[in-house]
Every structure is written in C-alpha cells, then in structure tokens.
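Worked problem 6 (solution included).
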Amino acid sequence: MQNLKKAQMPQLSTLIFAEPTRQSSPKWQSLFTERGVSFLPVVRSGLVSEPNDEAILMQAGRLCQQSDVSCIVLFTKDTVLMKRVMHQAKMGMKEFWLVVLDTKVSGTDTIESQASRVFRLQLPRTVPFKVRALLHSDASGEVFLEDTPPLSGADARKQKESLHEFLIHKQFCSAEDNTHHAAVKCWYEHVLLGALSSPLPVFPTEATIQFMCEAVAGSARQPSARTGNYALCLPHAPAMFGLSKANQTVYGSRLQRAILRGGAPFIMPESDDLAVQVLKRLGYIDSSLNTSVVEGLLVFINGAKNKKQLLTMGLLPSPEDTVKQALCLLHRAFLSNRLPPLWQRAPPDDQKVRDMLQKQGLISSTTSTKHEVLAAMMKLSERKRQCGHKMKTYNGLVWSLTRFVVLDDPMRREAVFLKNDGCH
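Solution. The predicted structure is:
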C-alpha cells in the first residue's frame, strides 16, 4: 500500500473483497484500521459464478464511470480476473496497475506487458515446508511429514521461468499453463524412458521445480517432445478453518495439512473412462457404499475446491448438462495443465451427520459402522425433504444431509445438479 501511495498516487483508496465473516476476524480487522482501507462483504451465492470476481468487476465498472478516478489498481493471482478488469479499465479510458507477488505465476507475462504499471511484492516466506509428497516411476506416490528448506524468492522465480520456457519448447505446456503441473508430466513421460531419475518430489512445488531444473541440466539424454497425455492429481482433504499453534508447528499451514490428509499423489495415462477412473482413485466411487457414478460425480463437482478449479477453467458442468457431458468436461479438466493439480478427495467429513443422527436416535453411537449410518441417513433423508435430490450412496447422503445441517453457513454455495441421461 505504502509503495503505491509513494508512486505518484497519494489518493489511493483500497477496497478489500471477502466473505462476510472476515469482518469479525481479529487478523483481518488490523487491515481495516489503515487509512483509506474499506471492507466489502461478499455473500457466497450463485451457481456458476465466483462472487468475489463478480463483485470486483461490478465495482471496477462503477469506477470507470467516475471522472475523478484516473487509475484502477488490482491485487490478485487470478489471471482471468486480471484480464477482465484490465479490459474494463481500458474501455473506461483508465490506467490499469497490477500488483502481484514476486513469484512466477503462469500466464501473467502478457497481462503484465499490457498493464500501465506492475508492482511486485517481495514477501518473506514465513510458512515453513513441513509436508512432502513424492511420485514414483510406477505412478504410485506417498505423502509424509518432512522439513524442506525453502529457496530464496529470486532463485525460485529464476528456476521457474527457465523451466517453463523449456517445457513450452518441448510442447508440454503453453505460456498460460501451470509450470509445476506440466513439469511433473514431463518427468513421468521421461522417467519411463530412463532419461530422468525417480522419485520426484511433487510437493512442495519449489522442490519439483528445483529437481527438474537439476535433472534436465545433468541428464545425458535430453527430454524429447511430449508424446502422451496424463492426468495428475495431488489430492487434498476438505480445508478446515483455523490452525492451532500446535498444528501449525506440525503441518506448517492449512494447505499442507489438507495435502497430508488427502493421501498420496498419483498420475495415470489418458483413457476413454479417465474421469471415472480418477473419481474412483479420489474415493468418490467404489464397489461398496458408493457404486453410483452419477452421485459420485455430483459430490465431486460440488466440493468447494473442485468447483473453484472447474469454474476457473471454464469446465464446471451446468444444470443443462447431462451426466455424459459432465464426464467429458471432467476428462478435459483432469488432462489440463491450466491450474495446479489439486483435487479434493472424498469422502467428506461425516461427523456432523453422525452427531445429528445420534441426537435423533437413529444410531446408538457416533462410532456406529458405515452400514448402520447409511441406513440411518436414508431414513432421515425420507423425513427431511429439504435435502433436495434423493441420494442413495454413503457419500451422496453425507453431502446432501450436511448441506441441510449447515444452511446458515456464509460460505455455502448453491449446488450443481445435472440432467440424468440414463448413463451410468
């Protein structure tokens, strides 16, 4: 903020967009004490749009109509939002200034070259790397706790830029793609040929970039151009709010805890039933209590992080889509290098549902077996018509009933349902 004000913009006004409960957070309140900083609460509503993005675009549109506004400044990592706000600014004859972190974000080069000014924030990394994930040459993986020393910001950026250029040259990605995602796929294709060594660290991402830069530089056989296509997944558990000091010491951050709890990473070659195979590996479909592809698909696309990923890629199924069409969209999403390969694992946390079932006398204990809980959930879903679409699988019922329990959750979003075309 201070750097921008010194940069010939003393009248800078800052508006922070976030969900309403942030206003009561002690950490966030410290931001609002600064002069010229305001908070705009954004209710999490809507089906196929991102509320924050829409609120920012609406505000940018208003600013473009004001004669006393000469410049619009945006601080975000979302390249799609960057492009949309920059377009609005240019249409409104306003300067567009961009604020970014001093780390290479794939797809920002063109945007930065078109912005009036670009400011890079050099923030020291205060979150330690505590979790490490590896991928082996047989496509299996593992995730465990291990301290990893971070690279300096300048070194990490230089390595990432160099590797990204190499991957573009070898046709593993485009300028808009995620460097880390494409690098893992490049490694896998060439480790099978004996050109690169195994295993590959796939988290933290800085370790992946460093490994690949060193491997390419020291390999006697240079990696060739891409010949195959793969789906890569670094699973993570649903994020939990807050992280105690004790857990922060163990995990480092909420993301690292989610990745550790999400399980081992995996990679698989493209196939006709790729979407279904990935959903099985993530636990949304199985041969026991979750045999329905339709319900597994619905639970997956309505997972908060999964929905965000699909929405950003423009591949989120809509209510007009059939199950077959939705699976085709997921097929494309799983093969895409556009974003980091983070996909939310199933099953969702069923503790709230177990507590509710016990209170209503439908199970004797919150530790009842899944078969007992499934039977109880089916009884309850018959009573609670508010649960919406009738589900029959364990994951489907947990998801449906959890939505009923947390109707007052400010982060709750509308669910995506599909046309049932009789497939699966």
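Discussion: The radius of gyration is 23 Å.
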